């Protein structure tokens, strides 16, 4: 393979790794993100903050990739492409202005 082809492959690999991070979050990562050690409390944390129940292994450990977590954060922040801002109910004045 030529040096140019190897360079293109390396750049493509780096770009792909930046776009998609399929690494699973480690036990320490989950503790750092949630601030909790108990697995059941970590599940409750994800339910409270993102409204989702994460996938769990038979032993109760949360299974989540970094890309899924970043997607949840982006959705919560409203920065996903094509995501619309949450609609707000119309404000009703309590009293008439003088």
Automatic annotation (TrEMBL):
Residue ranges annotated for the DUF4224 domain, each copy included: 25-68
Top-level taxon in the UniProt lineage: Bacteria
One Pfam family here: DUF4224
Protein name: DUF4224 domain-containing protein
């Amino acid at each position: 393979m030529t040096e140019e082809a190897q360079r293109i492959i390396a750049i493509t690999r780096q770009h792909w790794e930046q776009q998609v991070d399929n690494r699973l979050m480690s036990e320490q990562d989950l503790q750092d993100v949630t601030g909790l050690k108990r697995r059941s409390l970590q599940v409750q944390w994800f339910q409270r903050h993102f409204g989702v129940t994460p996938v769990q292994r038979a032993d109760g450990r949360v299974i989540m990739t970094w890309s899924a977590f970043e997607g949840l954060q982006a959705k919560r922040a409203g920065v996903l492409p094509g995501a619309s801002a949450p609609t707000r109910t119309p404000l009703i004045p309590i009293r008439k202005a003088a």
